[in-house]
């Protein structure tokens, strides 16, 4: 396990260095549109998934526009979802200060949000509304924090409102992680768990699978109804995922 973690850590470092180099190579040619940044992020995250030894399984159809809302389990969520489709993310401001990962998030066009600031939330909502006009999905984790996967927390509706105002489609997506011999909660990064020890444990884990299930896109007239119904859909999609896994192993 330690040897596997070390090899993957070296591979991850090389991949991240290569991704940043590629970004600045593209920037040298001229400024990048949000769509170009999203495509760069997608390619980078697919390489990161390979370096981590994570197999992605995609069910349903990734949307090409509108707002996408997902349950939140780990830092792996961003990598998994960006690898599945070109998109922009809404993320907490702390990520912007992370070494390497923060730079990658900024390069990918992430909208940063100070969770305790109403002014920051308003600014993020305005930016989301503008981006919803583009042929590029905006991805949001409306639980507001990551969990251990035992339940899906209530979805906050404030940042779903720009999609309602813009009459943009909203798509629910459910994430689930599997690995050999461990419960999903062992792969989740939540509460006050330290990042680097958890990443090292993840690097050493064999047979990780990331499952992504997309629901149907829908236009909503009320943000609270949108939050409630997409939350219910994510819960249902995760139940389907668990049932599928049981049948596959049974």
Considering the chains and any ligands shown, give keywords for the structure.
Glycerol-3-phosphate (1)-acyltransferase; alpha/beta; seven-stranded mixed sheet; globular
Number of domains: 1
Which CATH architecture is right?
A: 3-Layer(aba) Sandwich
End-to-end separation in angstroms reads: 27 Å
**Number of distinct beta strands:** 7
The gross shape turns out to be globular
Major β-sheet profile: 7 strands, mixed
Radius of gyration, whole Å: 18 Å
Give the low-confidence spans: none
Mean pLDDT: 93
Total of helices? 8
Order of helices and strands: HHEEHEHEHEHEHEH
CATH topology, what is it called?
Glycerol-3-phosphate (1)-acyltransferase
Strand order of the largest sheet: 1-7-6-2-5-3-4
Q: Strand portion, in percent?
A: 15-25%
Helix content: 40-55%
Structure characterization notes:
With 250 residues, this protein is an alpha/beta fold. Strand 3, helix 4 (101-107) and strand 4 form a beta-alpha-beta unit. Helix 1 (2-29) runs antiparallel to helix 2. Helix content is 47%, strand content 16%. A seven-stranded mixed β-sheet has the order 1-7-6-2-5-3-4, sandwiched between helices. It has a single domain, classed as Glycerol-3-phosphate (1)-acyltransferase (3-Layer(aba) Sandwich).
Summary?
The chain has 250 residues and is an alpha/beta fold. Helix content is 47%, strand content 16%.
């Amino acid at each position: 396990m330690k040897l596997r973690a070390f090899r993957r850590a070296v591979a991850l470092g090389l991949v991240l260095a290569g991704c940043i180099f590629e970004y600045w190579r593209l920037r040298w040619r001229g400024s990048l549109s949000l769509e170009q940044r999203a495509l760069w992020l997608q390619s980078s995250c697919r390489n990161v998934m390979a370096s981590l030894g994570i197999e992605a399984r995609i069910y349903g159809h990734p949307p090409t526009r509108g707002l996408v809302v997902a349950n939140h389990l780990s830092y792996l969520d961003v990598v998994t979802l960006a690898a599945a489709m070109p998109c922009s993310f809404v993320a907490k401001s702390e990520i912007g200060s992370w070494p390497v990962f923060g730079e990658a998030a900024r390069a990918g066009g992430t909208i940063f949000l100070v969770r305790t600031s109403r002014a920051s939330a308003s600014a993020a909502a305005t930016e989301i509304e503008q981006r919803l006009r583009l042929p590029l999905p905006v991805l949001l984790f409306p639980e507001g924090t990551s969990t251990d996967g035992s339940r899906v927390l209530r979805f906050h509706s404030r940042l779903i409102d720009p999609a309602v105002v813009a009459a943009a489609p909203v798509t629910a997506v459910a994430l689930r992680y599997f690995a050999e011999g461990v419960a999903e909660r062992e792969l989740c990064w939540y509460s006050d768990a330290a990042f680097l020890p958890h990443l090292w444990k993840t690097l050493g884990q064999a047979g990780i699978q990331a499952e992504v299930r997309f629901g149907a896109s829908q236009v909503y007239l009320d943000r609270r109804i949108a939050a409630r119904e997409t939350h219910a859909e994510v819960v249902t999609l995760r139940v389907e995922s668990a049932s599928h896994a049981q049948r596959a192993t049974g």
